[in-house]
Amino acid sequence: MIRVENLVKTYDTGTQALRGVSLHVREGDIFAFIGPNGAGKTTTIRILATLLETTAGRATIGGEDVFRYPERVRKLIGFMPDEFGVYPGLRIWEYLDFFSAAYRMPKLERRRAIDDVMALTDLAPLREKMVETLSKGMRQRLCLAKTLVHDPKVLILDEPAAGLDPRARIEFRALLKTLSGMGKTIFISSHILTELREFCNACCIIERGRILASGDIDGMAERLMPARIIVVRLLSRAAEAAEALAVHPGVTASRVEGNAVRVEFQGVEADMPGLMKMLVEKGLPVVGLEEKERDMEALFMRITKGELA
Amino acid sequence: MSGAAPGAGPGTGRADGKGGALDRLVGRLLRAGVSLQSPILVREMRTLLRGRKFFVSHILLLVVLAGVLLIAATTSAVTGDDSSSVGRLLFFAFFGGLGVVVVFLVPAFSCTAVTTEREGRTLDLLLTTTIRPWEIVWGKTLSALVVILLFMASALPLVTVSFLFGGISPWDLIMMYMAVLFVTLIVSSLSLAVSSHCRESKSAVVIAYVLTLVVCGLLIPVASLLMDILNVRELTSISAAMSMRHWTEQALILLVPLFLSLALFALNFAAAANRLKPPTANRSTNLRAIWFGFLLGCLFLLMVVTDVGVKRGWLGLAEWYFTLALGLGVLSPLLWLSTIYFASEETRLPPRLLEDCERLGGLRLPLRAFMPGPASGLAYAAVCTLLIMGGMVWFCGASASSLDRSRLLHAGASFMAPVGLFLLTSAGIAAFFSSLGLKHRPAGFAAFGVSTLLAFGPLIHMGCQQLTNTGASFHTLLNFHYLCPVLAGMSAWSSGAGDMSVTLFAPDADVMPAAGSGMPLWQASAIAYGILTLLVWTLAMVRIRRAQARWRENLARIAAEQGGTGLEVGREQIAGAPRGTRP
Q: ipTM beyond 0.85?
């Protein structure tokens, strides 16, 4: 759905924001675009949203060239910038009505579309409220509603969850899941990593204008973090267990943490019962064995290690 | 209150029916935004009419206007004028006040229209919708227009007072209201153009007010010209004065301001909309076309005005000469600035534009002059200069049958040759700076500076010599006054019989060489600028060609490099990626 090839962007000031970014987002994906601040996320997104010119490279959305036919691309995408304002002096429905009119929707269709997106984003009870009185979370929702009003195939969201409280974030996540269920392709940038894994199915990590890694989230985790972190909890004799584990095949490191041993284990899931068996055979009082989730944050830290300025 | 938006009313749904082609056409026009159905207008009106600011300022301005009328009425009552002249005084006081209100209120309203969206971070939201840039500008122009219309409507009772005294006809009222509307159009579109080019509201306000005052100042000579045609020396009923004139003069009185305001509006409108276009869009062709039409129209009107003037007898020989000189004096700098502007456009064009340019091919040169880029900027300069300057020369000879034709032709040619070639040189300099890799604005300013130095440096030099009065010092060694095209052109005009002449590099020559010796100043100037033009154009064209070839190569290389899907981990393609393509 989105194809970016060799995007290079050099600003007039001489800053090289992008140095050859390539990525591919399949239709229906929820694609996480991850990177530290200043990595080039917003630049890439603004180029995709037809707001910025590239220095070199190609980008297509839904088969349409972003630079050649920006008007066609605009019809396809719903764009939510990282920072945005609202037009003051309008009610919520008027605000949405304005944007649907700006998308050249006929008047009758407009009313239905507004009702739909307000229902979807839970804004319906606030229909007559003035937009400038809304809270940050509500504004975020309103902006998402505006993004959805012309029923775009692709959603391009630049850090949509930034600055939201946990409840709003969870609600936002649920909303994105719903949207994905409706068949929309979602391109979402973020640096809040922990939450992305459970609903994104592809991701790419960008730093200093280069793509460091990209692909399926699970596949990438396997490739980039071959070692599993396993925490073995014992009643006592943790040191003894650590020694025993250290010589077990596949274990690369073990460390005592109180009454538990933290093990780095290079093996597949099927090898884990063997580990358990060995501990039990030695008569160690094992309480439990638990695998730590290989979350995006760890992944991120691992990949960008040493390259952060 | 929500339904208070004017223009949200009738006009929709006409295209829904299965009517004929006309109906469909009307529907298409309506949808194209020719109707008042602009979403921008609806939104702005909703915001504006909800706020208290609008009503307070509205009432305040009405009170001020009423005060002006009151003062005018009392002073005229004291001096004891007759009734109809009191009426006319009140009438013109009212429109004077209204004019001031428009000139000061409209920029304040329009010049922040885009910058506040930029500052409030709503512009990106708006631009990524499928609304067209010109629809945005049109909507914002309409809202300024609606504000002024509301104000004029509510001020109508004030002006009717003047009708009680007589001396004014309803036609006067209609004409003046139309004039105010046109001024509103000009001022609001100018402010919008400034607004869409500025990043901050603060700078937009300053620039918009300065430009508004400059433009209004420039329109004063036009107004005085029209008053001259009407032969109006005191306050009088315009429609009465007009009915006394020949129909050609009446047409001129209507045509000149109409043309000027529409042309200015179109220019500002295009400039404002261009800035809101997608970054890869063509932002040049419409401006070039409008500007070209404007220059041609000015030329045409100048010819018609002088022709009618001579025939109707209100332009004598001296005035005819003066009008022509004034026309040339206004058109030449406009031509100069515009060619510099267009020739200093960036060398690096987006691929879509490059393709558009190439599709036109080398054969259709005149059309190509309207495509963006410095190379076509040079062509544009040539076309404009040839057509407009040539038109002037032709007009000098052909139009004035009662005047000494050969002398006029000579005067025309001697002015046009140095000035026209100077224009081409300036365009070449601008294109050269652009080909060095400078952006549009710096390249333009640099070219402006260099060509100004060329044109007016000699004048300054002469002034310095006059001041110090050093006689035959070594300053006079390089007697380069022929580089001042204005001086050279005027030299043939001022001295009727013998042209001022120049002796190149004569060590003992005075500031002004003696008449009759050596080469005429304008010829020397034309030759010098001819050589300079050739030199600069060749340089610029070679560099531009090279830069464009390099840019095309880069594009080809990127196309060739597009192999991977970008899914490999830790891929390092960056070393091979092209850097910025600026030469």
A: no
